[in-house]
Give the backbone structure.
Amino acid sequence: MARLDRRCVALALALSSFPALASAQASLRTWPGDGPLSYGAACLGMNDDGSSNVLSLAPIFPSGLRFFSQTQTQTYINTNGNITFAGALPTFTPNPFPVANQPMIAPFWADVDTRTPRAAGGCNGPGNGVAVMGPACDNPTGGDGIWWHSEAGLLAVTWDRVGYYLCHQNHRMSFQLILTAVAPACGSTVAGTDFDVEFRYHQCEWETGDASSGTNGFGGTPAQAGFDEGIGTSGHFYAIPGSRAAGISAHLCTGSNTVPAQPGIWQFQVRNGVVMTCPNAGMACMVPGQMGVCAQGRLSCAAGSSTPTCVQQVTPNAERCDNLDNDCNGLVDDSSSGNLCGSLEVCQMGACVDGCFEGSCPPGYTCDMSHCVDAMCVGVTCPDGQRCVMGACVDPCAGVTCPSGQMCTGGRCVDPCTGITCDDCTACVGGSCVTRCTASSCAAGQTCTSTGVCVDSACATVTCDPGTYCMAGACVDACTGVTCPSGEACMAGECIQTDLPDAAVVRDDVGPPPQRDAAPQEMDAGSTPSDADIPGDTGRHPIHTQSCGCSAAGSRPPSELLALVGLGLVIASRRRRR
């Protein structure tokens, strides 16, 4: 569409308001001292649909970049949110991948316009493909600029608070493309050409220019993000899900493909020219051939692979009353190896429940088949691995907050890197092998450690005792803020089982134990709740669970029951003892 036609389209569109704005997600990386904003000294002057001159990659990546089937040795930085390798790209409305004859990497291909509006209408600055390159760019403190920083093994392009066509600045986009070289000994068939790609999104407030049928930055044909080999063939491109659809800008700022998720950060490995996207990495999966909790796993990609495999996360444990097959023998709550509950109790629907007679159960419970059960759960049958709480079947990981570095899988807090083997060029983070960091690849305020993982600089040289971890330069209790799975308590940074039959119960209470038939109490902020803190929870309640900040628990024999007069006194005594 000609520029004259675009202006006519813009004048004909009625303005409307779209609330789908996202901002302040990922911070943009800076290089102090390089340019007025530390995004680099090289930049594009205000323009519309412009591009840089050809940039040689030789000083940055001496062997070039292997991108799909070709090794690229030069690039162009385009105003419209992408870099290309075959030539400059003025196209403002993103064509759906694959696009012929134009290999590109696009963090946000849309109609960027960095010109400023004039009071009398129209725009200041050149348009139609003209871009000024150099160290002196327009109004750097006010944004609406495109900058790049380069050094050996790294190229970073920053679109800083850019507006959209036609000279609109009421909504802004701030995003970044970072290319980083990786070690040449990581399985590449073309030495020194492998690289990593990172998209960072800080401010996401528009997704469509006026000439792409947008109104007020939305509607029409929205932005596209991803990679394209440029041969126009299916299977030779990758677009971030949601590209060219309403809401893509907010999705880029709030979404992520990292594990654990880092909103606004999308990372990719390019190995032997192939973009390693590892779809759904870190998601829960079922391990073939395993039973019970042992079938619980997480998807992970080995180094140099885009095909995820399901890696087992949970190993066999002693059977317990929780509606899970803990020992992985194919039987749920199997008591063949011993009683799962205390005396006068039975395991029912994943909970140890008392014997009863009519009228003897606490409020909210009813006597069913001679045992006290949650009244709302009578007649409810839950699938294996779930249990009934207040009439609803709940996942064993619902409401669980695991200790630092762990994730809840199959009702257990486990290290997601268990069973993951990475090569010398990668490190396991959140269950997947990611490229080991370098001194220049970590974000501001972070330091690359010998483990190959970026950490907060304040913690880079701090060594913490077991049961603690470093946060903001100080060692803190690893149980702070932790909510363990049902029947477990956090001690020394680990969720351990406290829900044991009477003969094996470990107690740390020093005062009167809580009454089971008392009304549920509010939990202190930062404490680690026992099952008794959860209204309607029918799980077996530990005797007492202190805050995770406590010292190691001591133990003593269980209290002996007083003389009993009938079954009612037995039950009442057992409730008081809990």
About this structure: Confidence is low (pLDDT under 50) at residues 1-19, 502-578. Helices lie at 3-12, 248-254, 566-577. Residues 566-577 form the longest helix (12 residues).
